Amino acid sequence: MNKTIVVTGGTKGIGRAIVNKFAKEGFTVITCARTNEEQFPENVLFFKADLSKKAEVLAFADFVKASVSQVDILVNNTGFFLPGQIHNEAEGTLEAMIETNLYSAYHLTRALVNEMIARKAGYIFNICSVASIVAYTNGGSYCISKFAMLGMSKVLREELKPHGVRVTSILPGATFTNSWAGVELPTERFIASDDIAEVIWTANALPATTVLEEIIMRPQLGDL
């Protein structure tokens, strides 16, 4: 039986790189995004959903459960960034980023993890950020949401230890995605999305008795 990976936000950037890597390796991949203008291989299943809305997160979870009997890997990747500072960012910025960057992962994990617990097997990767550990002047609510995401990931790691479910927090620095569109910097100043996908592939390949709890990735020349 093919193994299955669920990747949120799989049409662009880091999510798309993860989808491509695992699809190429023969996994059944299930992904979602608010829009889909992409063409996927036949072993990739797509569901249109806005994961800032709890009802659509749960609808996606139902789609996953109806499509496959088990989930081997869950990658909570959905997220977005708005620059700003707490004292001057637009009203509702915190709520928007918490709903997308944190609540989506919380609700989807709750919907899918019990099957992993029952099997005493499974892996959850949470895409955090270096903004989960470093406060940036123009990071505002994004930093808050990513600090919270790392906190949730740490809690999951402790809770799921006795159940054989591994949890890894991935903390990338500046990654070459659409978020940096228009920035006049050479690509070598960024992490490639494919590199993050390779790290997840490698971590998953380790024996079930070993887990990489936190992985910090930065461009070789450091943060921007």
TrEMBL record:
<dbReference type="GO" id="GO:0016491">
    <property type="term" value="F:oxidoreductase activity"/>
</dbReference>
<comment type="similarity">
    <text>Belongs to the short-chain dehydrogenases/reductases (SDR) family.</text>
</comment>
<dbReference type="Pfam" id="PF00106">
    <property type="entry name" value="adh_short"/>
</dbReference>
<dbReference type="InterPro" id="IPR036291">
    <property type="entry name" value="NAD(P)-bd_dom_sf"/>
</dbReference>
<keyword id="KW-0560">Oxidoreductase</keyword>
<dbReference type="InterPro" id="IPR002347">
    <property type="entry name" value="SDR_fam"/>
</dbReference>
<dbReference type="InterPro" id="IPR020904">
    <property type="entry name" value="Sc_DH/Rdtase_CS"/>
</dbReference>
<protein>
    <submittedName>
        <fullName>SDR family oxidoreductase</fullName>
        <ecNumber>1.-.-.-</ecNumber>
    </submittedName>
</protein>
